[in-house]
Automatic annotation (TrEMBL):
Belongs to the transferase hexapeptide repeat family. This is Uncharacterized protein. Residues 8-239 form the Nucleotidyl transferase domain. Gene3D superfamilies: Hexapeptide repeat proteins, Spore Coat Polysaccharide Biosynthesis Protein SpsA, Chain A. InterPro entries: GMPPB_C, Mannose-1P_guanyltransferase, NTP_transferase_dom, Nucleotide-diphossugar_trans.
């Protein structure tokens, strides 16, 4: 195996996050926490895990918030750069903003609102290192690919990609999972790819241009799931799925040391910030409590995400709820959602 590299990293983080608007008034979607750590930091950790220490973040909506949080990356042993995207016109045009930064080096690219298990980032790098492979992608299996892209393979080599096929027309259940390793040639393919019927320049259609050129583009089908923060329901599912992975001894130690009480009932897994204030209550399972949260007496919280600065009043009961930054839940409020329909209290709002 001939090792190429080193890889650079690119994160597309310019979008508005319309479907998460109630929770993105203060921070953009890439700063929404996954088990109390911003999504973009989780992605950068994944990059670091495959040896990427130099990354570019394509910013747009609330760009200053991303730059303020990530800084120059030295806190993570990385060098982080920024490129603003002034006109949001698709993932292809966003990716094209990285051309000058990438230069003549291969790079890993991912969307700023998705996460894969750590092993999948290494798997796609290993695939790219195989003899003859010129670009590599990740795929996941979906029951309905009509909202994504249907991908057809010959072995592990891409034969065709159809972006957002009409429902019921695809014979493939393979979908773009959002992590790629590209050569700089992708930028020429983007430049030669026309706008989609939605009026956007799609990155997957640029990959199809490479395939049509005869480029050997291979795919790794992830055995697990793609985690994303695109809707309140998928965001909740992501946190519930990963809380067991990211909860560690520090979380449990914080629980024991800072919140010890004969009236505090905790059912793991939970992730609790050390700066939160918690009275006697019942927490868990699957509860994330961020920095500066106050939780009153006799509160019950299950399957919920509480964002920084939120205040949960005495006697409140929450299930499948997302409480935004600095939001307030009134005393004895009952916010009872379901996995299929999550209750959201937006940033700075009051839920009664």
């Amino acid at each position: 195996m001939t090792v190429r590299g080193p890889l650079k990293g690119v994160i597309l983080a310019a979008g508005y996050g319309t479907r998460m608007a109630a929770l993105t008034q203060v921070v953009p979607k890439p700063l929404l926490p996954i088990v109390n750590v911003p999504t973009v930091e989780r992605i950068l950790q994944a990059f670091k895990g495959v040896g990427i220490t130099d990354a570019l973040i394509i910013t747009g909506y609330l760009a200053d918030a991303i730059e303020a949080y990530c800084g120059d990356g030295t806190q993570w042993g990385m060098a982080i750069h920024y490129q603003p995207q002034t006109e949001v016109s698709g993932t292809g045009s966003a990716a094209a903003m990285a051309a000058e930064y990438v230069g003549d080096q291969p790079f890993m690219l991912t969307y700023g609102d998705i996460l894969l298990d750590a092993a999948e980032y290494q798997a796609v790098v290993d695939l790219y290192q195989q003899p003859g492979c010129e670009a590599a992608t990740t795929l996941n299996r979906l029951k309905d690919v009509s909202t994504g892209s249907a991908v057809y393979l010959d072995g592990n080599r891409i034969r065709e990609i159809i972006e957002k096929p009409p429902p019921g027309t695809s014979t493939s259940n393979l979908n773009n999972a959002g992590v790629f390793v590209f050569p700089p040639a992708i930028f020429d393919a983007i430049a030669r790819t026309p706008q989609s019927i939605r009026g956007e320049y799609e990155l997957t259609e640029a990959v199809q241009t490479m395939v049509s050129d005869g480029t050997d583009v291979r795919s790794h089908v992830i055995p697990g799931v793609q985690y994303d923060v695109g809707t309140p329901e998928t965001y909740m599912k992501t946190n519930i799925s990963l809380i067991g992975t990211f909860s560690n001894s520090d979380t449990h130690r914080a629980t024991a040391d800072n919140f010890a009480s004969p009236n505090l009932d905790i059912e793991p897994p939970v992730a609790i910030s050390e700066t939160s204030e918690i009275e006697r209550c019942r927490l868990g399972p699957n509860v994330c409590i961020a920095d500066g949260v106050r939780i009153g007496h006799s509160v019950s919280i299950r399957n919920s995400v509480i964002m920084p600065g939120a205040d949960i009043g005495d006697g409140a009961s929450l299930s499948f709820a997302i409480i935004g930054r600095c939001a307030n839940v009134s005393n004895r409020a009952r916010l009872q959602g379901r996995a299929e329909e999550v209750v959201v209290a937006g940033d700075g709002k009051t839920a009664e």
